[in-house]
Amino acid sequence: MTGGGNTGGCQCGAVRYRLMAQPSDAHICHCRMCQKAVGGPFAALAVVNPDDIEWTRGKPAVFNSSENVQRGFCAKCGTPLTYHYLGNDRLNFSIASLDAPGQVVPDIQIGIESRLPWCAALANLPERTTDDIMPEDKKTNMGKNRQHADHD
Ligand SMILES: [Zn+2]
Ligand SMILES: [Zn+2]
């Protein structure tokens, strides 16, 4: 990957990482545990060896969502960052936490027994940009954006 595509982090910037290897097995997981863990309809994850992710600022806090599964997230802002079946050399990280998330493309959907029934129809919904739907006064009244930039 090039152009900063190998770095990422949480929304507030307290936790930042760099991938030392090309991720593999990019996938969408619709399982109920991933839905809860990300607070969204599904998780988008890809895999690296735990040794190939370097935590360049802070470290994720962890929640053992099962006895042998650790989910890492930023303790300050809550961004979901990792999923690790302990003892396994495959560390899943959240694709959307990358600074350039579009570069890692999922090629399979798993956990489809829990897939929300409206997921497949998303592509048919009307589309608007954020700019389209945001009233002019909201754009100025929201206050300073505290999201960390998509780079270190
Ligand atoms: Zn954070
Ligand atoms: Zn899952």
Distance between the termini: 16 Å
What is the share of helical residues? 10-25%
The radius of gyration is 16 Å
What is the number of E strands? 10
- The number of distinct structural domains comes to 1
What name is given to the CATH topology? glutathione-dependent formaldehyde- activating enzyme (gfa)
Structure report:
The chain is mainly beta. It has a single domain, classed as glutathione-dependent formaldehyde- activating enzyme (gfa) (Alpha-Beta Complex), CATH 3.90.1590. Helices cover 11% and strands 31% of the residues. It contains three helices and ten strands. It has a seven-stranded mixed β-sheet with strand order 6-7-8-9-4-3-10. The chain has a three-stranded antiparallel β-sheet with strand order 1-2-5, with no helix packed on it. Strand 7 and strand 8 form a beta hairpin. The longest helix is centred in the N-terminal third of the chain and has 7 residues, at 32-38. The model has no long low-confidence stretch (mean pLDDT 93). Bound molecules: zinc ion (2 copies). One zinc ion (ZN) is lined by residues 29, 31, 33-34, 43, 111.
Task: Throw out a few tags for this protein.
binds zinc ion; globular; 31% strand; 152 residues; seven-stranded mixed sheet; three-stranded antiparallel sheet; single chain; glutathione-dependent formaldehyde- activating enzyme (gfa)
Q: Which helices and strands occur, and which strands form pairs?
A:
Elements lengths: L6 E3 L6 E4 L4 E6 L2 H7 L4 E6 L4 E5 L3 E6 L2 E5 L6 E6 L5 E4 L14 E2 L19 H4 L2 H6 L11
Parallel strand pairs: 3-10
Antiparallel strand pairs: 1-2, 2-5, 3-4, 4-9, 6-7, 7-8, 8-9
The structure holds zinc ion (ZN) (2 copies).
